[in-house]
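Quick start: read one record
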Amino acid sequence: MTGSIGSGSGVPAAPADPIIPAATQVPARAGVGRGPLIIGGAILALVVVAVLAIVALPRPAATYPAGSPEAAFQAYYSAWQRRDLETSYALLSDRLRDQVTIDWYRQMDRDFGWGRDQDRRLTLQGSRVSGDTATLDLRIEEFYSGGLLGAGGTSAWDTSVPLVREHGAWHVDELLAGLEPMPAPEKG
């Protein structure tokens, strides 16, 4: 007996879906589609770029009134940063310039001037002025990188810088290699 498989109505049966092995079947997606994920990723990338720009871009230097101790120290430190040692030396007090020559100051800078290459930020915490003397309180933050996967960090410390008013202008009254106090040579 020959026969056919069918509904018996004489209408051919619809072909059955092919059988796909379970290992190759792709489950239907549930939840969020691809579009929102791409948009969310783009927003996250913009936020990361904005934060990096805020942190990495240098802030403009503060401006201080001409003739103030703060402006005098800023001029000293800026000259030292630019390696303009004649100007930074001229902004030292008479007392210090009597103790050290410009040649000694240049030698000190060769020995200890590596500090200008550090990634640092100076913040004026306060200043105290009494007659012809002033003290600036500074916060120094130093940034460094390295370690596993380029991890970095920050160290911070506070220091004070004395200034004196001489000949109508403020002068740094501590021998500094940038920000580091240095002992003056002994006269012999």
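Strands lie at 119-130, 133-145, 152-166, 169-172, 176-177, 180-181.
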